[in-house]
């Protein structure tokens, strides 16, 4: 079936013509479950690599570090040809990484696909990332199929008997389906109603079918189930994985074999003379063959009757025999005989080979070739590129938070283009670029021949930048002249004017720096090419075509009225930072490590595009019209948390800057920023990701040695209820109080009464459940407060705002409009959140009774986990849940300023200027000075109100018991029982906490979940690997924030404490240490003494 496909590959155009025969899919799984090995087999089917190397070479892992570490670090695509009967298919296969650090790469892959192959290692079963990818497929609404991999290990390593092997596999399948059921049952906020309904229907039908089966079990006459057994009508194929449906493949990617139930059903139907459909439904499950009375019948109840199920007797026993003959008996004559039985002819050189595994691979691959089994499942069960539904198109064009009909009509019409998937000349061009990646120039197939397109690309590129460079030089020359001209006017001063010389030098240096930066980028682009990883949804794309490149924040409603004949003028383009015009240079078919040039890419296919690197950062939408909305943002599963500063030699700084820009452009997850302190900081998802970024910077993007600082780990500052016991576990009362709370007011209220008015407020710890909710729904809060605005506009707000020189003044009308544009899903989510918050507040005690309606703002950034409550009797403003309305109160004019103060206070707390978390500021009274109310003439400035609120809130915070919060990783490790103890040691040493540790049923491996403070996690993976002889690979993902229950201000004071801890507090105050290290890094004052024992020093010097 697969033979001769190599030729078809080169004829990609013929394959692309029919989008109904294109499948775009990705392979997803937990780390090391065998994705790349499976991809190898599929690639080998097209002759890109030899079958002998499939499962070993890991062709898609093209980077050096991927090969060295043995893990995939990026998603990459290979286009394959496959034919079944007369139909020819183009399969665009994307291999994705399984390591959590690269989960954003998985997101970029999923977005371009309509289906996915989920791989599960049958030894390890469903692991943390398996669940994540299943959820991702569910959320993105793409169809999954399943490959149960590494079955050879069940046979060879665990040495399970065939029947146990069957039960083990059945259990793993059950685990996967149980999780699918769980996904279906949990109502994730934002999930579309249609999706839920569709799945509910499937679930109902499944239950019905189960009932039917169990009913049939009770009826003895129904035990023989050749004929009508009532399952036919059930279609739950899109919810569960069931071998009889054909969406499950049993495989060993390493040994190159794999099969679906249908394959054996066909074989045995002929051999045993049975009905193929019946065999298809009974080869998996509790069925056995009974040959009572000479007639062979398939019966139910194998388990009860202690019979071998069909899967064991017809399939597994044969497989075991093959493994036994090749691996244990090593008898060539018997092997040849067995091969004959299986209908396989082994070449002589294979029979003579001493490499037993190669022999096994050859035999199994010929008997049960993996690639056709998987590809057949793919074309039958995964949707084609032309089957995008209106709902899915809507989801791609418009985020769930916005109403689709709030888009301009012309934009809404484009929804049809997705459904049509037409490549006609008139069809609008719609392309999505999910990431941009760097490829060495030598990997372009057209670079290898002379006068090729790629070269042309390069020439055009460099000529443009030559022009730009010339322009820059001219600018520099003019500046220099201007400077000299000035000094000409005052000749006498020319040399004496040091200032002038200095300015000139600085200007030149600046220019030269930028120049060098550009040159560096240019040099790099001579060796490497940026390729946009894209899918054409509608229209056809050709090299040389001019297109609109729309940034992720592009909103067509903002430009719709400017359009002149459907286009934007150059002037308008200059003003709009989200729309660019770019020219496509080359279009390529992606072939794993190589790229093959195309003359045209039609709708439905996944391609690489060159020439747009100046317009695209991370992702973009490409279209022939600017009314196309930007595609919705990719779902990210991991929060980048590991932050480091990067340094280079002064002379290398331009290179470093250029390199960082390229890194930021090409990595979907990394965040690059320039701190106020002048440091370049990069934020990565974890240690492995960091290492990859640094390697890329050093070897590809910057090409200079780069130094990396110690990780900058974020903290949060919070307050807690007054503790009841001290560090010696004794009740705190009276004198024994060891906290900094001052007691004039038991609640710690702060009152300010000055020239800008009176303010009375206090801070209180938010109930934990409320903080959790706020943290969880950060994005939703962002939408509520920033877009739909809780902004209150006073009648005279504009005049006051203007007189204050305030920019971005709240605009009641636009706020109301934004509120109207919120989609039903968002409104529903908002009311749900409000309900949950109300419940959480009410459960926390009577003092929070009405809190949810008093919420004024969230902070920092309007969406953080801190709350500002309005309990001012005289100021009745609508809460954030209500519609923005104008209210008549003098305070309304300063409302936003007050909130800004709150945002600033919560963005940097007093302990070490880190953001606050879980703090509630209750404003009990606020009034302006009397004369301010009478007349606006003596206006109080916005700045005064901001400082008033910021400083007072900070003071209120300081009056409570302050604590530091640490970021925690959740760490999932699976290891064998021999090294579990060693693993616990390493976790314990780093202040980690084991949450759960279970032995996986049917194996000796343990699945352990632990929490580990991020600050203690450096080098953790290495240490763990070393102490467990390379067995344990931790998967660290940011999990949550946890209060460090140590008072940072604590020092031993009472006699007992002094006796217990010693005067210098023998064991260090860990919270204080953390705070001091942060303060030192930020250049803030600490109370550490530089000289601890001055006398000793003196004695030392005397003794000299
Ligand atoms: N015994 C056995 N080993 C396998 C099989 N499939 C893969 N492996 C091995 O498992 C390891 C991981 O395989 P990969 O294909 O790199 O796994 P992956 O899922 O691509 O890993 P990441 O991309 O890093 O997440 C390699 O050592 C493979 O040789 C299999 O079917 N049987
Ligand atoms: Mg891989």
Topology, element by element:
Blueprint: H1 5-10, H2 12-16, E1 22-29, H3 35-44, H4 64-69, E2 76-84, E3 87-95, H5 103-111, E4 115-121, H6 128-139, E5 143-149, H7 151-156, H8 162-185, H9 193-218, E6 248-252, E7 257-259, H10 261-272, H11 276-282, E8 287-290, E9 297-300, H12 310-329, H13 332-342, H14 348-352, H15 356-367, H16 370-381, H17 390-397, H18 409-420, E10 430-440, H19 453-489, H20 498-527, E11 528-538, E12 546-550, H21 556-559, H22 570-575, E13 579-583, E14 586-591, E15 594-598, E16 606-610, E17 620-623, E18 642-647, H23 653-666, E19 671-674, E20 680-684, H24 687-701, E21 707-708, E22 715-720, E23 750-754, E24 757-765, H25 768-776, H26 778-787, E25 793-794, H27 797-803, H28 812-820, H29 824-844, H30 851-854, E26 855-859, E27 866-870, E28 886-887, H31 895-907, E29 919-927, H32 930-934, H33 942-958, E30 961-976, H34 980-989, E31 993-999, E32 1005-1013, H35 1020-1027, E33 1035-1044, H36 1055-1061, H37 1070-1082, H38 1094-1103
Parallel strand pairs: 1-3, 1-4, 4-5, 5-6, 25-28, 27-29
Antiparallel strand pairs: 2-3, 6-7, 8-9, 10-11, 10-17, 11-16, 12-13, 12-17, 14-15, 14-16, 18-20, 18-21, 19-20, 22-30, 23-24, 24-29, 26-27, 30-32, 30-33, 31-32
Helix pairs in contact: 3-16, 6-8, 8-12, 10-11, 12-15, 17-18, 19-20, 20-23, 23-24, 25-29, 31-33, 34-35
The structure holds guanosine-5'-triphosphate and magnesium ion.
């Amino acid at each position: 079936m697969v033979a001769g496909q190599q030729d078809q590959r080169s004829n990609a155009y013929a394959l692309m013509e029919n989008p109904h025969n294109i499948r775009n899919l990705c392979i997803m799984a937990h780390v090391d479950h065998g994705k790349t090995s499976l991809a190898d087999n599929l690639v080998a089917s097209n002759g890109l690599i030899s079958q002998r190397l499939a499962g070993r070479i890991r062709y898609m892992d093209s980077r050096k570090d991927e090969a060295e570490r043995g893990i995939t670090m990026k998603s990459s695509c290979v286009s394959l040809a496959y034919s079944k009967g007369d139909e020819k298919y183009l399969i665009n296969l994307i291999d994705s990484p399984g390591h959590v650090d690269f989960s954003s790469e998985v997101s970029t892959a999923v977005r371009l696909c309509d289906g996915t192959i989920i791989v599960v290692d049958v030894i390890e079963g469903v692991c943390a990332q398996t669940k994540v990818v299943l959820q991702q497929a569910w959320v993105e609404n793409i169809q999954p199929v399943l490959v149960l991999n590494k079955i050879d290990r069940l046979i060879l390593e665990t040495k399970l008997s065939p029947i146990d092997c069957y039960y083990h596999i059945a259990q793993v399948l059950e685990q996967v389906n149980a999780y699918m059921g769980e996904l279906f049952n949990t109502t994730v906020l934002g999930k579309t109603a249609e999706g839920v309904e569709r799945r509910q229907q499937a679930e109902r039908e499944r239950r019905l079918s189960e009932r039917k089966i169990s009913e049939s079990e009770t009826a003895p006459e129904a035990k023989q189930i050749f004929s009508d057994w009532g399952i036919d009508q059930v279609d739950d194929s899109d919810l569960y994985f069931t071998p009889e449906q054909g969406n499950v493949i049993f495989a060993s990617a390493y040994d190159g074999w794999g099969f679906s139930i249908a394959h054996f059903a066909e074989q045995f139907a002929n051999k045993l003379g049975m009905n193929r459909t019946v065999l298809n439904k009974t080869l998996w499950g509790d069925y056995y063959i009974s040959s009572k009375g000479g007639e062979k019948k398939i019966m139910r109840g194998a388990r009860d009757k202690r019979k071998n199920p069909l899967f064991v007797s017809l399939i597994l026993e044969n497989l075991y025999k093959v493994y036994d003959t090749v691996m244990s008996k090593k008898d060539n004559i018997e092997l040849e005989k067995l091969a004959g039985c299986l209908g396989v002819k082994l070449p002589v050189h294979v029979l003579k080979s001493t490499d037993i595994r190669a022999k096994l691979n050859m035999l199994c691959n010929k008997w049960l070739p993996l690639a056709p089994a998987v590809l057949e499942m793919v074309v039958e069960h995964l949707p084609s590129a032309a089957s995008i539904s209106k709902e899915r198109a809507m989801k791609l064009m418009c985020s769930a938070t916005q109403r689709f009909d709030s888009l301009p009509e012309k934009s809404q019409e484009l929804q049809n283009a997705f459904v049509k998937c037409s490549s006609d000349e008139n069809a609008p061009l719609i392309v999505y670029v999910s990431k941009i990646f760097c490829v060495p120039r030598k990997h372009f197939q057209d670079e290898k021949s002379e006068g090729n397109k790629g070269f042309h690309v390069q020439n055009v590129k460099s000529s443009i930048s030559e022009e730009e460079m010339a322009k820059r030089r001219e600018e520099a020359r003019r500046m220099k002249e201007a400077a000299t001209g000035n000094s000409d006017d005052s000749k006498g001063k020319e040399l004496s004017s040091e200032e002038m010389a200095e300015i000139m030098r600085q200007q030149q240096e600046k220019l030269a720096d930028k120049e060098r930066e550009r040159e560096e980028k240019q040099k790099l682009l001579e060796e490497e090419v940026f390729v946009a990883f894209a899918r054409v949804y509608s229209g056809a794309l050709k090299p040389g075509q001019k297109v609109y490149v729309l940034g992720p924040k592009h909103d067509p409603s903002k430009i719709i009225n400017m359009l002149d004949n459907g286009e934007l003028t150059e002037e308008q383009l200059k003003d709009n930072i989200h729309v660019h015009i770019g020219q496509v240079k080359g279009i390529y078919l992606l072939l794993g490590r190589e790229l093959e040039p195309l003359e045209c890419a039609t709708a439905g296919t996944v391609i690489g595009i060159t020439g747009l690197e100046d317009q695209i950062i991370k992702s973009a939408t490409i279209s022939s019209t600017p009314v196309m909305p930007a595609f919705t943002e990719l779902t990210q599963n991991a929060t980048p948390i590991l932050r480091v500063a990067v340094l280079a030699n002064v002379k290398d700084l331009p290179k470093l800057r250029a390199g960082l820009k390229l890194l930021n452009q090409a990595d979907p997850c990394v965040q690059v920023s320039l701190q106020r302190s002048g440091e370049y900081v990069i934020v990565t998802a974890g240690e492995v990701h960091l290492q990859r970024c640094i390697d890329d910077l050093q070897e590809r993007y910057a090409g200079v040695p780069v130094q990396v600082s110690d990780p900058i780990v974020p903290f949060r500052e919070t307050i807690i209820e007054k503790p009841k016991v001290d560090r010696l576990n004794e009740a705190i009362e009276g004198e024994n109080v060891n906290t900094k709370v001052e007691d004039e007011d038991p609640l710690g209220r702060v009152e300010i009464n000055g020239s800008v008015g009176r303010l009375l407020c206090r801070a209180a710890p938010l109930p934990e459940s409320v903080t959790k909710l706020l943290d969880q729904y950060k994005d939703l809060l962002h939408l509520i407060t920033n877009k739909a605005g809780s902004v209150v506009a006073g009648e005279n707000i504009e005049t006051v705002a203007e007189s204050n020189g305030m920019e971005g003044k709240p605009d009641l009308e636009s706020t109301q409009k934004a509120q109207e544009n919120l989609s039903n899903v968002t409104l529903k989510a908002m009311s749900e959140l409000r309900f949950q918050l109300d419940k959480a507040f009410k459960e926390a005690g009577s003092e929070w009774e009405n809190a949810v309606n008093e919420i004024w703002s969230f902070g920092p950034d309007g969406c953080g986990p801190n709350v500002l409550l309005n309990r001012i009797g005289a100021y009745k403003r609508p809460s954030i849940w209500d519609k923005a309305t104008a209210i008549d109160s003098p305070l309304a004019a300063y409302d936003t300023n007050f909130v800004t103060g709150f945002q600033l206070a919560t963005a940097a707390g007093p302990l070490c200027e880190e953001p606050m978390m879980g703090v509630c500021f209750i404003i009990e009274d606020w009034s302006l000075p009397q004369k301010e109310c009478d007349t606006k003439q003596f206006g109080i400035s916005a700045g005064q109100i901001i400082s008033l609120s910021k400083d007072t809130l900070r003071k209120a915070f300081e009056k409570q018991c302050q604590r530091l919060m640490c970021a925690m990783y959740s760490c999932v490790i699976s290891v064998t029982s021999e090294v579990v103890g060693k693993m616990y040691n390493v976790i314990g040493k780093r202040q980690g906490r084991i949450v759960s540790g279970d032995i996986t049923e049917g194996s000796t491996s343990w699945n352990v979940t632990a929490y580990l403070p991020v600050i203690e996690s450096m080098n953790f993976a290495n240490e763990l690997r070393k102490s467990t002889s390379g067995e344990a690979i931790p998967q660290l993902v940011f999990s949550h924030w946890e209060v460090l229950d140590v008072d940072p201000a604590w020092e031993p004071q009472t006699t007992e404490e002094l006796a217990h801890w010693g005067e210098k507090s023998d064991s260090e105050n860990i919270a204080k240490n953390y705070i001091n290290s942060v303060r030192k890094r930020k250049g803030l004052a600490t109370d550490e003494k530089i000289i601890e024992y001055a006398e000793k020093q003196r004695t030392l010097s005397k003794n000299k």
